[in-house]
Each structure stands twice: as C-alpha cells, then as structure tokens.
Amino acid sequence: xxITSSSIPMDSIIHIESISDMHKVFGLPKPKxxxxxxxxxxxxxxxxxxxxxxxSFGMYCVTQKNETVGSMKYGRNTYDFQEGSxxxxxxxxxxxxxxxxxxxxxxxxxxxxHPDLILKSELGRSIDDYSFFxxxxxxxxxxxxxxxxxxxxxxxxxxxxxxxxxxRHSQKLIISNIELLLDYCTRYYDRQFYTRSNLNKDxxxxxxxxxKTYYEDNNQYTTGIPxxxxxxxxxxxxxxxxxxxxxxxxxxxAKAHIDDFLLNKTKMQLLSSKASISEIAYSLGFEYSxxxxxxxxxxxxxxxxxxxxxx
Length: 311
What we know:
- With 311 residues, the protein is an alpha+beta fold.
- It is built from 13 helices and twelve strands.
C-alpha cells in the first residue's frame, strides 16, 4: 500500500507498488493505463517530500536522464547522472532520490511497467535474461544522440497505444515495443562493453588475481568456494555486471571462470600430490567431496581418480 507523504516516518521505506503510486510521487494525475506509463521529466519533478526517502519499487522502471545535477542512491552506492545515462530498476529494489535538477531542454524520461502487464507473455518468461536490471546503479548505460532518438521513437509508439482506446491488440503491441526497447538497450550495452575493452581486460586480470589471492590466504577454509557475489563485491561490481563483462570479453561468465580455476588447481594437486580425493576437495573449499567429483567430471569428462590414473 502506498504511504502518503504526510505519514512518512524517518528512516522508513515507501513501497511504490503501482503505476498510480509513482504518478503520485511525481504529482501527476492518474495514469491512462493501470500497468504501464511513460513519464517525461520535462515540467515534472519528484515531489520534494520524497527526496532523501528510501523507496521500494513494485514495478520495472527504465530511466533515461540528460544533463542532470543530482544523484540517486542504490544500496550504499551513489550515482551521479551524466548526459544520456540510463538506469534499470526491477521490482524489489530500493532507491533513494537526492533531488534532481536538469539543465537540459529534454531532461529525459522513465518507462514504468508492472509485472502483471507481462505476466502471461513471452517477455514475462524472458525478462530475467535482461541482466542489466540486476546491475548496480553505478553501472549505468550511456547512450549517444542517435541511440536516444531510436529509443524515443519506440516510446512514442508505446504512448500512442495506451493513450488511444484500448482494444484486444493494445497489450500485445505495448509489450512488443517494450521488448524491442530492451533489445536495443542490450545492443547498446554490448557496444559499451566493446568500447571499454581495455578497461575490461584490466578487470579480468584483477579477477584472476583475486582468485589466486583468495586461496593463498586460505579463505576457502572459512568461507568455502569463492562465489560470484564475493568476487563482484571485491571488485566493486554487481555479480551480474561482472559476469556479463567477462562473458563479452572471454566467452565465459564469472561462474565458468571460477569452475575453470578450480579445475586447474585440482589437476595440479591430483598429479603432484598423494592427497586423497576428499582431502583435495576440502583444500579447495568444497563441503562435500561428491560435489567436487561431480564438478570435475562434468568439466573434464573423467572422475578425479580416473584423471590421476591417466597421469
């Protein structure tokens, strides 16, 4: 249930569950469609009483901001908007607005759509494939003027659909255009990863060194196998962003890199020591040797004992 501004206690979280709730935050009238809306930031602002207030979202939100002075917080991170930057929010995320004042003639927009809109559609089944909804706010997408124009053209089609009389085709066409917009954003993120290739190689080197240091410091005995979340936090990235970055740079995601690292360490130990399979599994951070053997066979095609006998 939406909490009105007059009843917001300090340090509380406002749950913005519907499109109507979000319209109230911007001081807008009721939306034309209950499950989807586009808010153009020109001539609208988040109501002052909602600045510095933590907000939990019950919907998907794609935001594009231009030349904005101000910041947005997601978790412990603060992101300062730059020209042409985009942020993707999914249901359950908590953000804090510190107040934005745009100097641009076109300050940008927000596309809002409720999970119920796409529930029975193909997009509803594939929405998790758009991994940028799980990126940290510091991992925003930066788009060019041409890219802005392409996205605005799609937005215009969505707006046209929900402003006219709703018929049996409306929802399908709205969802199709949302999916098209997200597909373009996937392309633009691929472009961004590509143009930052040198930086990505630096991240890859740091990631590999992180895994080496993890075992040199014997962290596996207290916290087990290094997780993607652990690696992302250590490198100041969201796990999804780290995985996508590595996948685009090397063809393998973060989990596959960790598995390969473990496989190589296992092969060295199998051929250079007389330790038992269970001892090697424990030394790598596996709680159960069966899980260790299963992973090794899946990756190498033979069991640990068979590999040792081949050597």
